[in-house]
Amino acid sequence: MSALGGGSAGGEGINPTASVIALVIVLVSLGIAFALAPATLIPLIGVIIGGVLISFGVHFVPVGGAPAAMGQAPGIATGVAMLAAGGGLAGLFGGAWAAEMGIWVALGAGAMGGGLLMAITCLMVNVVYVYAMGIPAASGKVEKDPITGDTYAGYRSQGTEGHGLPFISYVGGVIGGILAGAGGTLIYLELLSVYEEALPSVLGMTPEGMSTLAVSLAGIFAVGMFLVAAVLTAYNITGTIEGPHDPKFKRWPRAVIGSSAACAACGLVAILLVVI
Amino acid sequence: MEEILFGIGISALAGALATVAGAAEDTESDIGSQGDPNSQVQLAPQMGYIHRIYNKAISGEPPAYGLWVALAAGIAWALMAIQYNAILALIIGSAVAVFVQGVYATTAYLGRTASLAKFEQPVYIDILKSVTTVTMAHAFVAVFTTVTMCFLIIEALGHPFPLPLMGLVWGIALGAAGSATGNPFYGKERQYQNYPFGAGLPISASGDIVRYAEAGQRSSLDNGWFTSKGAGPASGICFGLIVFFELWRTILFEPFAAGWGAVIAGAVIIIVFMVIDRMVETWARKTYGPYTTEAATEEEATA
């Protein structure tokens, strides 16, 4: 029953040595980018912030995994990285569409795209639980919903740790989708700006001819980095999480530090592709 | 005005395609047992319950569908680049992707089931023959509708992503929506049909899945028959709503307030869904009531 117990592999503390190593990786990556092409420094910082947003956002998403599929634990019955990727990439779709309208509108569109996917998915999860399975929502981690004040003690069926999506988990899912969507879009926009600038001179073609290649490269790297940040965070969560009220939520600084280092290294590779 | 009407029409068509895709995806994953409930299918023989349920969960649904839809989109894109008819290219792309899905399903079933040999779980060749093709048929419907939807979004609505990347993004979203919505119904409601309705499964009952049907042993095809009445349509509605609202809010509201219109519309739609969710939650609490009387008393005292 390790998935239910939420095994505390690694605990909640921050490992100072690992954090210093992560910081060094971030600084070295920024230093290399600055030394080779100073103009890429800001985009790389944007990529790192995008990774941080994704990593932080994933902690909000209520993921119940296999136990949720049997109504044994609350949350959405799928994997952490899977669900976050679905939400974040739907956000990336919206953000990329609005890229011409400026960075802030594109970020807003990306955030809302991710939030919308999560809002609809979480609603349908509750609809299935309530109308198809006759099971009300109940949290296993708190006795009282921090937003609505609903009590859960009587609403957990016997032998389970709760089920469905309590309102706090629903709100967490939407916030997670919004942050992940904005993070994925930010990575895409920053890489797109680098590629649109550098590709025409690297390959000696017109900017118009390069736009499909720039969009494709930026999109693929954004998807890849999204998965890097989301999977790292999934390891930090270890199994299932109910949302912002779950004690595991407190582990977020560790994942944020790890994701910033990973995204710095990946972002540097993505930028070096056209700069060298 | 005509452009907006055309855009809304395409959004509706894309939403309809997505609805079919979501329903087919969930039914495929339930017949093939690819979602999280497959943990029980894998666990059952270890608890002494030998069964005839398919078992192909070597990957989550989102990455699997990301692969298949991106593959179909990539092949269709390449064929269109050499002047193939678009519809033919989409069909050929989907067909090739489905053959990959068939290879995946076959190797996954053989591999996962063979790993249970020491618990005396046999590999049934007749299951391999009868169920694999059914999952492939459902996967074709899901992949073809998704890749057609992606094609429409690019060609008719002008999204900048190339078709393979669009296929990857929406394939992953399709798997996420389908697995999230459909898994509890397949897991609790079908695999543990002999446990009381209206309650979660006690943790101690894990592995005791239903293995017998009205006549003989239960097959995964029976599971598809059952879930296509609940989880399949629900997943379809979920994915259809996601695609429709994502496109609709952009087409209709992006011209307002320098693009902020679509963002505000998205926020409003999210709040509306949040209110509906709260109503569903409250309805369930009032209608079904608490499981234990002690808690009911406690509830009244709190109120």
Automatic annotation (TrEMBL), chain A:
Reactions listed under catalytic activity: 5-methyl-5,6,7,8-tetrahydromethanopterin + coenzyme M + 2 Na(+)(in) = 5,6,7,8-tetrahydromethanopterin + methyl-coenzyme M + 2 Na(+)(out)
Listed GO biological process terms: methanogenesis, from carbon dioxide; methylation; one-carbon metabolic process
GO CC annotation: cytoplasm; plasma membrane; vesicle membrane
Domain of life per record: Archaea
Stored InterPro entries: MeTrfase_D
Pathway field: One-carbon metabolism; methanogenesis from CO(2); methyl-coenzyme M from 5,10-methylene-5,6,7,8-tetrahydromethanopterin: step 2/2
Membrane-topology descriptor: Multi-pass membrane protein
Subcellular location: Cell membrane
Transmembrane segments: 20-37, 44-64, 76-97, 104-132, 167-189, 210-235, 255-275
Chief place of localization: membrane
Keyword line: Cell membrane, Membrane, Methanogenesis, Methyltransferase, One-carbon metabolism, Transferase, Translocase, Transmembrane, Transmembrane helix
Enzyme Commission number: 7.2.1.4
Any one GO molecular-function label of the UniProt entry: tetrahydromethanopterin S-methyltransferase activity
Pfam families: MtrD
Family classification: Belongs to the MtrD family.
Subunit architecture: The complex is composed of 8 subunits; MtrA, MtrB, MtrC, MtrD, MtrE, MtrF, MtrG and MtrH.
Task performed by this protein: Part of a complex that catalyzes the formation of methyl-coenzyme M and tetrahydromethanopterin from coenzyme M and methyl-tetrahydromethanopterin. This is an energy-conserving, sodium-ion translocating step.
Name this polypeptide is given: Tetrahydromethanopterin S-methyltransferase subunit D
Organism: Methanogenium marinum
Automatic annotation (TrEMBL), chain B:
Metabolic or biological pathway: One-carbon metabolism; methanogenesis from CO(2); methyl-coenzyme M from 5,10-methylene-5,6,7,8-tetrahydromethanopterin: step 2/2
GO CC aspect terms: cytoplasm; plasma membrane; vesicle membrane
EC category: translocase
Single GO term (MF): tetrahydromethanopterin S-methyltransferase activity
Membrane topology: Multi-pass membrane protein
Catalyzed chemical reaction(s): 5-methyl-5,6,7,8-tetrahydromethanopterin + coenzyme M + 2 Na(+)(in) = 5,6,7,8-tetrahydromethanopterin + methyl-coenzyme M + 2 Na(+)(out)
Entry function: Part of a complex that catalyzes the formation of methyl-coenzyme M and tetrahydromethanopterin from coenzyme M and methyl-tetrahydromethanopterin. This is an energy-conserving, sodium-ion translocating step.
Family affiliation: Belongs to the MtrE family.
HAMAP family given in the database record: MtrE
Name of the protein: Tetrahydromethanopterin S-methyltransferase subunit E
